[in-house]
Amino acid sequence: MSAPILELDGVVKRFGDNEVLRGISLELHRHEVVCLIGASGSGKSTLLRCVNLLETIDEGKITLFGQSLNDPRIDPDQVRRHTGMVFQSFNLFPHLSVLENVLVGPVRALKRKRSDVVEEAMHLLERIGLSDRAKEFPDRLSGGQQQRVAIARSLAMKPALLLLDEVTSALDPSLVGEVLDLLRDLAASGTTMLIATHEMNFARDVAHQVVYLDGGVLVEQGTPEELFTNPKHDSTKQFLERVR
Amino acid sequence: MSNDTDESLSEETPSFLAPRRKQLLIGRRGVVVSTLSTVVIVGGLLTVFYLARGGREVRHFYFDPHDMWQAFVGDHDKGLSSVGRGLLTNIWVFLVSEVFILIFGLTIAWTRMSRSPVLMPFRILATVYSDIFRGIPVLLVFLLVGYGLPPLQIGFISNLSVATYGCIALTLTYSAYVAEVFRAGIYSVPHGQLLAARSLGLTNATTMRRVILPQAVRTVIPPLLNDFISLQKDTALLSILGVVEAVNAGTIYQDTQFNSSGLMVASLLFLAMTIPLTRFTDGLITRDRKRRLASS
Lengths: 244, 296
Fold this sequence. Notes:
The complex is a heterodimer. Chain A is an alpha/beta fold. Chain A has a domain at 6-92 and 161-243: P-loop containing nucleotide triphosphate hydrolases (Rossmann fold, 3-Layer(aba) Sandwich), CATH 3.40.50.300. Chain A has nine helices and ten strands. Chain A has helices at residues 44-51, 76-82, 98-109, 114-127, 143-155, 173-188, 200-206, 224-229, 234-243; strands at 6-15, 18-28, 33-37, 59-64, 67-68, 83-86, 161-165, 193-196, 209-214, 217-222. Chain A has a six-stranded mixed β-sheet with strand order 6-7-8-3-9-10, sandwiched between helices. In chain A, strands 2-1-4-5 form a four-stranded antiparallel β-sheet, covered by helices on one side. In chain A, helix 3 (98-109) packs across helix 4 (114-127), helix 3 packs parallel to helix 5 (143-155) and helix 5 (143-155) packs parallel to helix 6 (173-188). The longest helix of chain A is centred in the C-terminal third of the chain and has 16 residues, at 173-188. Chain B has a domain at 84-286: MetI-like (MetI-like fold, Orthogonal Bundle), CATH 1.10.3720.10. Chain B is 74% helix and 0% strand. In chain B, helix 3 (55-63) packs across helix 12 (261-295) and helix 11 packs antiparallel against helix 12 (261-295). The longest helix of chain B has 35 residues, at 261-295. In chain B, 28% of the residues are buried. The A-B interface holds A 52, 54, 76-85, 87, 89, 91-95, 104-105, 108-110, 139, 150, 153-154, 157 and B 190, 192-193, 195-203, 206, 210-211, 214-215, 295.
């Protein structure tokens, strides 16, 4: 196998006295989908934020495309332009239309010409099935539609890696399906993704690797079959029984 | 009936009629009652004013139509300044100060909120500035600037017109307030917006300009307009530096003609200037509130 595009080595993150990540080591290869599972507070979100440099780590090392993110010469903005992040609460820009939300990254961060990007953006909206809502503002859309736009907004940057932070947790149960379908579609077309999720069936379907975190510790990692049908650790077993 | 009925539950049929006193204020009857009480209160105040022992004198000293008109237009031959023309000074000082206040206010807010280590000294300076100029009475700032800068003899700064010193004093004081208004507005934008923008790779400055400020403006406008209403009034402080603006013209009329109607004219003119802005601000607040209620 080729070299991993993302490598975490003994990553520790503390908020004051609270150690949220306690020496996490993890690899992610191109076209791979890795799902992070675990109870709330197990450190899934923090891990994603550290990769995107929204948080700084206290110990260990994160390597992205062979470059250490600890290097002081690294420009966080450059890192973020190549790693898309989607949030639980969508965080669409309410003062911009759906289309403008998708355009803002390429136009304002990459300084590409607007007219060059509009067509790409419309293609993305078509892909998520919302091209007819391009001119509308986010508050006119359902939660599921907003989250799909948020995913399109990240994809517009053509990220090498997509980080998804419990993207269906804030949705009505009836709207979860449409977002997961989109993610399945992305996985099928080879998008590299690191996904924090509570949706076990989804993780079983799309993940190449599933990682179980508990209290900031990586307890167990394996293929979906290994982890879901034959968990080795007691805490993994207990967690899976509780969420089932 | 089962015998396990909870004893704390009442078996009586409740009555939903409002108490008699509250019934008076329901529907059209309520409008009639409140109109009546308004008429009684206003009428009462006017009666007291008219029947007061000194009422006649006060009406003569403050509301004499002839004196009011003469104070308004002024009289060059008698050396009387026009209150109306004086107000023009208030207006231009207000307009000029307003522009500078917006620029400096935003700059100070921005500096105070920056996290760059390079800007550290400026950040401290901006904080100290805010503390000082929110703490000193505007009147004192006028005196310090108006009488303090000219004797310093530093180039053009010491040779400005008195009204310009007024603009400087107002800008110094109000920028500190307006900076706080901007800061509150910027903090009112949810943190998720910042995270989303930064995670797209937008720089700090672009995030501010394209994402945070457009959303902050909405919350900032009503308190900002409130500060401008009070700025309009504080232009009257120019009079203590000897500028013949509206209030000073009224005082001159009072001192020479022994009649205070000029001051009343100045009051009315200030009201004519501020009321449109206060009404507009209130309208904005109501509209914003309705929109928020509708969207949630």
